[in-house]
Amino acid sequence: MLRIIYLFGLVSLIFPGLVSADSTPAVPPTFHLDLTQHWVGYFSLVVMIVAYISAMLEDVTHLRKSKPMLLAAALIWFVIVLAYQQHGHSLPATTAFKSNLQAYIELLLFIMVSMTYLNAMEDMGIFNALKIWLVSKDLSYRRLFWITGFLVFLISCIVNGLTAGLLMGAVVVAVGKNSPRFVSLGCLNIVIATNAGGTFSPLGGISTLFVWQHGILGFTEFFKLFIPCLVNFLVPAAAMHFALPKDKPIVDAEQISLPRGAKRILFLFGVTISLAVGFDMALGLPAAAGMMAGLSLLQFFYFYLQKSDKPSSPRQSEFSLFFGGGDVNLMTNEAKRLDIFDKVGRLEWDTLLFFYGAMMGIGGLGFIGYLDAISQVLYGQFSPTLANVMIGLSSAFVDNGTLMFAVLTMHPDIPQGQWLLLTLTLGVGGSLLAIGSAPGIGLMGQAKGQYTFASHMKWCPVILLAYFASIGTHMLFNAGSF
Question: What is the pTM of this model?
Answer without folding.
Answer: 0.75
